[in-house]
UniProtKB/TrEMBL annotation:
Pfam families documented for this protein: RMP1
Ranges annotated as biased composition (Basic and acidic residues): 145-155
Region (Disordered): 145-171
GO cellular component assignments: ribonuclease MRP complex
Residue intervals of the RNase MRP protein 1 RNA binding domain: 12-93
Gene Ontology MF terms in the entry: rRNA primary transcript binding
Stated name of the protein: RNase MRP protein 1 RNA binding domain-containing protein
PANTHER family: RIBONUCLEASE MRP PROTEIN SUBUNIT RMP1
An annotated GO BP: maturation of 5.8S rRNA from tricistronic rRNA transcript (SSU-rRNA, 5.8S rRNA, LSU-rRNA)
Amino acid sequence: MDTTELQHEFSLLRILYHRNKNQHRVTTWWKWLNSLKRTLTKVLCLPDRLRLQPLVKKLKLHIIPGCYRAFNNIISLGQFVTLGLVLLGLLARINKCIDGLGVVYETKPVVSKLEIVPTDDDLGQVIETEELDVVAAKVVPIEHRTQRKGRDKEKKNKKKKKRSAIDDIFG
């Protein structure tokens, strides 16, 4: 088992983790980075392949997809785009290294087609468009509602506060 590439990626992950811990430790995506770091630490410390199998399965099925979504969120927010791109690139290289370990794990087969079973349940009542026109005519137009609100604002604007000399200076 050649883990030199994985160790290199892990060292980069550790540096990013250490450098950004104080600033980002309360964010939601930090949970995923933390779990990725902890799981990779366990993977690198275990020499036995039989004990690696559950960890690799956890990484591939749970942690890496969660990290992917969380790191994409960093990019979509736009505040720390460079950090998000670096984390996504690092995650992709870690995923490639995990695939290269050669650990085989079982997955459940995915059902590709859904079977639609007809039922005799009541699906509701069909509404004709003529009935909708009658209901729409009874609704008060928006214009009438906004006119009332405008009058209330005019009454409120008439009351002015007394101004002092400080108000003349600052504002």
